[in-house]
Amino acid sequence: MNGGFRWVYVACAAACLILVAVMLHLWGAAEIRANPSEVIFLTVAGVFWFAIATKLFAWLGLSLRDDAVERGNVAALAALCGALSAVAAIYAGGSVGEGPSYLNNIFSAGLGTAGLFALWILLELGGNVSMSIAEERDLASGLRLCGFLLATGLVLGRAVAGDWHSMAATTRDFIRDGWPAAVLCAVALPVEKFARPSRRCPFPSWPGYGLIPALLYVALAGAWLWHLGPWEGMVR
Would you give the end-to-end CA distance of the chain in angstroms? Predict the structure, then answer.
């Protein structure tokens, strides 16, 4: 058992919560920015959001306890940290902007998180990435999934950020601004089939087959965020 891996994940979760708190303090609704207790409340709510998401990760073949902690699988730890960071980006995005109710935040963050899991499921069905990570312990696969999930989380988090108007308007904005996440998935599917461990290449190089694709995914997401610019109602 590798307890150090659990603490790495806890440190990642703490960094994600700090990100959420900072974004709420800077860009939350005016009532939230004026009341530190509101920032604390929504940040603590993020703890429960992250905990539920971590449980759901196991349904997609990656368990914090079984794969990272008990088996000391670095590839699984990298992928799980990327998944948690993606969920945090979406939760933070869904929590910024003006809105009349906490239910608006829940709907926005829930919509983005559902999109993240849907694209992850598609990648799993087409690329069987969890087997490469959990069973073959391939670090390159873990880094690729980390980068893909983080990039997807950034795109979808931005897609649900901004002032609240209605459920229909939020869904419309989510599709309009979040569609590049589906393109990332379409790109990641052939990459997985090419770069995953095989008889020809049983031990792919993690820098070339893992880190570079991961950075490419994140760079593409960053370019899209730059293209979109500030979200509606963003305080400057």
Answer: 47
Within-domain flag for 235: no
Dihedral pair phi/psi, residue 136, rounded to 5°: -90, -5
Residue 236 lies in a domain: no
Burial grade of 11 (CB within 10 A; 0-12, 13-18, 19 or more): exposed
Q: How many domains is the chain partitioned into structurally? A: 1
Which token pair is 149? 């999930």
Separation between Cα atoms, residue 153 and residue 165, nearest integer Å: 22
Model pTM? 0.96
pLDDT of 162-195, one tens digit each? 999 999 999 999 999 999 999 999 999 999 999 9
Give pLDDT tens digits for 99-127: 888 899 999 999 999 999 999 999 999 99
Taken as a whole, the chain contains a residue count of 236
Residue 194 lies in a domain: yes
Q: Is residue 161 part of a domain?
A: yes
Query: Residue 166, exposed/middle/buried by CB under 10 A (0-12, 13-18, 19+)?
Result: exposed
- Domain residues for 198? 3-228
* CA nearest to 118, candidates 69, 45, 60: 60
